[in-house]
Structures are given as C-alpha cells and as structure tokens.
Hints:
Helix content: 55-70%
Largest sheet: none
Mean pLDDT: 91
Number of helices: 10
Radius of gyration: 29 Å
Distance between the termini: 49 Å
Amino acid sequence: MVLSLNRRNANDFAKEIFSRVPLAGADTHQYSTMSNDELVEEYNNYYAIVTGYRDKYVDSAGEYIGDEAFAENYPRDYSDYDMVLNEILPNIETALYNRDVSSAQDTRQYLDNWEFNFDRYGKSYGVDELRSRITTLNNQIDTLKKKGYDEEGDIGDAYAENQHEMYLKYVDSLAQAERAYAERKQEYDDAYAELTRIDGEMNDIKADCKITNPQFNFTEEELWLLDKYRIHTDYTNENIITTSISDNAEWVNTAHKLYKDAKEELSAVSQPQWTFSTT
C-alpha cells in the first residue's frame, strides 16, 4: 500500500511540474467582461488566498512567518502568493478604478511582471508553459529584429524608441524564461526518475507474484491446466468506490479494501461443492 501511494503521489508531482500554469486571475483580458460586482468578488476570492497562505505558514507561536521566510522555505507557494498580492489584486483595483475615470488619459496601466519577470514568478510556470513562453518571446524578438528595432532608432522618434524598449524587454524576459525552464526541467526529470524507480520496484514485485515464476515450481502442463480455470476480468463492488474528490490515500485504501473483498469472494466461490442435485 505504501508503495502504491508513493507511486500515485510521485506521478501527480511530476504531472504538476510539467503542466503548471500561472493563476487564472493574472490574465487581465478577462476583466473587461466582468461586472463591478464580479470584480469585487474576484478580489475577495484572491485576497482569501493571501490570508490562507498567511494562516498556513506560521511559527511556533501561530504567527505568520513573514514574506522573507516564506520565500526562502516555500518558494513554490510563495511565487503564487507574491503574484496574487503584487499583481492580481492591484490589477483588479486598476480595473475598477479605470471604470470611474472620465478620460482615457487618466486610466492606469495594468502590471505585467507576472508575464515577463520569470526570475520572480518563474516557479508559477511549469515545463510546458515555459516552453510555450520561450517560443512566443523568440517570435516577438524575431519580428522586431526584422523591422530593425533591435538597434536604437533616431532620437525623438517615440514609436521607434518604444519598439526598441520592447525588444530589450523581450530579450531580458527570454533569458529569464530559459533559466526558469532549465530549473523546472531539472525538477521534472528528478520527479520522473523517482517515478521510474518506483515503477521498477513495483514491476519486480509483480514478477515475483506471477504464477509463472519458477519459485512456484509449476510445470508447463500444470500451468496450461490451471489457465483453464482462470477467468480474466476486473472485480467490482458498487459499494466500494472512489469519487472525484478522493485523495491518493483514500484511493489506495479503497483499492486495498476492494482487494480484500475480492479475496473473500474468491475464497467463497472456490470451495468444493459436496452436494449436487439432478432433475
């Protein structure tokens, strides 16, 4: 049971590292389709994440350990906490503020550090998402280079200066994304190696339990005869189930319960019948 639980946990861990994506609230495009009430509700939901982390990571006195200790000891969770506190919440405030201004010149700009600053927020991205971001940044850089914006333009040409600044921003972000990708890829490789090790151990156990294992001393003829009495099917019991909210420990415990129930059922139907009737 322990090995099975470890296997499921290792598999989930590897999958999470590979497919991790930033928090949905970081994308500011959705704010334009939300009502004021919905934005306020979104703000409250994300603020609850902040308080949840502060309630989770406490010292022996029950006090929040502080941002510095949080970042040092729990960098994965801190990345999301930092993104909520310093990107998502301020951007929701900006969305609400911009709806009350009378002139477009008075609107505030959204923060986009979560999308480009991978040194700070890279741990909120998984292998696949970082690979996608690297591809996008390379394409953006190539487009600007083809138009000559990799070089400084004429002084006073505001548009050219802006495009050159964007080029430098993308180049710096690409370097950060590649560093984050190398780190995440190593984490994934390590997690997958652990999963492979567990699979190897489980396969060894399965091989030892096979009826064809020489330690059971069955001859080829005996194995052929035994196979005639075997029914290859899955055993189910509608009273022993898991649900979508069952965690790995519950799943393994339920599987073990089903296994024991199947053994008892098999034992009952395998007893020799001492009586029979004819018609």
